[in-house]
Automatic annotation (TrEMBL):
Keywords attached to this entry: Signal
Signal peptide: 1-25
Name of this chain's protein: Apple domain-containing protein
InterPro entries according to UniProt: Fibrinogen-like_C, Fibrinogen_a/b/g_C_1
């Protein structure tokens, strides 16, 4: 009889050790993570995280479910049935997110338990919606963001409208509120917050400090019209990057600045210059045709787009009715 290879004894030792740890962990509501040493899966009874799953299958016990998660690089946490099914097994669902990334989707549930890896996401302090998207968050809504000083605030994240880009809302207002100073008389350089702790579509603007904190972690900016109604279909839409045009620090009148894409009332173009004004609120005057882009056909005299609205055109989505809204966002491409 030949002696067993040394790798056999190593695997036997590891497997036996894991079984022993599992027996101990059941009392602690935690499962040892063999690859990350001090990390453990923490069990939170009767809870459920409602996020996209990698897959659902049946397992014999908790240990099998956690090992499945560890073997899948996309798995960040898991839901596990609180009791066995008719076949004597538990259902196990591997997740691409965690309660720290999607806190709004973490709910009580009498039929399941939730497991997350202790130490992996505790202390997670995202500085923009980009970091949520990078960790697998995929649902639009309110998220907790941290500024450069470590202070948290609530912000609206758009993680789905443009695949591969995560956007953080910095300002939104309705046509009815166009004369409010924060949306009419002040540039991005001015510190004029409006309801900054209560994100909404009708009257909202972040403080300059929060804008600059987000800007540091963003590569792009965009403006949208009535996003809650139309989403993103690239009609009455504007997008650029900070490298070509720093909208926060710009001051000028009718200066031609390069953008990645612009559409105003169906007139559109890519990678071309557009006339911008900012001394009051940042905006385009589409009645001016002095740059590469022109939307003069169908424009009204001195028509303002994406801000200021001293003169507005009801054919432009941002200013169709008093309930129409304008949004400005900072964002970045997700890394593959």
């Amino acid at each position: 009889m030949f002696p067993a290879p040394s790798s056999y004894w190593l695997h036997f030792f590891v497997f036996s050790s894991l079984l022993a740890v599992e027996a101990y962990a059941q009392d602690l509501d935690a499962t040892y993570h063999p690859d990350l040493r001090q990390d453990v899966f923490v069990k939170e009874k009767y809870h459920f995280l409602n996020v996209p799953g990698i897959g659902m299958f049946t397992v014999y016990d908790t240990f099998d479910c956690t090992l499945e998660c560890l073997s899948n690089p996309s798995c960040l946490s898991l839901n596990l049935a609180a009791s066995k099914g008719a076949d004597g097994n538990f259902w196990c669902e591997l997740l691409t997110s965690s309660k720290y990334i999607n806190p709004g989707e973490y709910k009580e549930n009498k039929t399941s338990h939730y497991f997350f890896l202790k130490g992996r996401f505790q202390g997670f302090q995202p500085t923009s919606c980009f970091e949520y998207g990078q960790q697998g968050a995929s649902k639009d809504g309110i998220y907790k963001i941290y500024d450069n000083g470590g202070n948290s605030f609530q912000a609206y994240c758009d993680l789905r409208s443009e695949p591969g880009i995560a956007w953080t809302l910095i300002m939104s207002w309705s046509r009815e509120n166009r004369v409010v100073s924060a949306f009419r008389n002040t540039s991005f350089q001015n510190n004029v917050p409006e309801n900054e702790n209560s994100p909404n579509w009708d009257r909202y603007r972040l403080s300059l400090a929060r804008m600059r904190s987000l800007q540091v972690h963003s590569t792009h900016w965009r403006a949208t019209c009535s996003y809650p109604t139309h989403g993103i279909d690239f009609r009455d839409y504007l997008r650029g990057n900070f490298k070509d045009f720093n909208i926060v620090d710009f001051l000028g009148s009718g200066e031609c600045k390069r953008v990645e894409y612009v559409d105003i009332r169906g007139h559109n173009g890519t990678n071309l210059t557009v006339p911008f004004w900012q001394g009051w609120a940042l905006h385009i005057d589409s009645y001016s045709g002095s740059c590469e882009f022109s939307a003069t056909v169908g424009a009204v005299s001195s028509e303002d787009n994406f801000g200021y609205y001293g003169t507005f055109n009801p054919k432009f989505r941002c200013t169709q009715t008093d309930n129409s809204t304008t949004q400005w966002w900072f964002g970045a491409h997700l890394k593959k």
